[in-house]
Design goal:
Layout lengths: L7 E6 L2 E6 L10 H16 L5 E6 L4 E3 L4 H7 L22 E5 L2 E3 L1 H8 L2 E5 L3 E3 L2 H4 L9 H4 L2 H10 L3 E2 H6 L5 E3 L4 H13 L3 H11 L1 H4 L2 H16 L2 H12 L9
Length: 257
Amino acid sequence: MECGVEVVRYETVNRVAWVTIDRPAASNAINRAVSDGLFAAADRFNADDDALVLVLTGAGDQAFCAGGDLKEMADDAMTVPPQDFVPQFGRNLLVDKPVIAAVNGAAYAGGFLLAQSCDLCVASDNARFAITEVKVGRGVPWAVPLPWLVPPRVAMQLLLTGDPINAMRAREIGLVNEVVPAAALRAATQAMAERIAANAPLSVLAAKRTARLFADMSLREAFEAAERIWHPVYLSEDAQEGPRAFRQGRSPVWRGR
């Protein structure tokens, strides 16, 4: 809470959980209240069996998230941020189900971090991305996965210059999946999330785990780990339901088992 206002909102629409950073007057910057709210929202999503995809976004149309709240950092004389300063999906926060960033406007510094750590990213055509820490003397230990997402020299340029890139450039380098008009961002992201939610849930969870194996393992180890991940999926009821439904000319009824 911030002066009696909820700074992170959680709502569910057709099996999609929307988590919104709601500090538009501060460009949705991350302060302690936002950080706590994001952790709480992720816990709520993890426990919500009816929500199959999480969408992270910011309030308004000017900023997804401008990064850490520099005013609060200055007031607190923050040196090394604690590891729980901001949720990082896959590092200090485990979310097995898919997470999509819906980037509306600026995603700078910690906002870039949030977009980077989501599984997918849909951006409005006015979105901008930048790793601005070099301009204010701060650090980016969270940027380790960046060369896995974009070409290494592009990652180096982003890190060393602090210069922003627009949405189309972000899509060209692979940071963003889709670019849509700002007015269509919510609908386009909801549609993508619903397409994911309509798929076999066990296969979706296993696919997410598989996609990240190669970042941590050798090719041989990754193949072996992938076989272990998918073995119970092949043995599930859903694995029989999919072909059966196709043969019968109907939509499958997934049971998640």
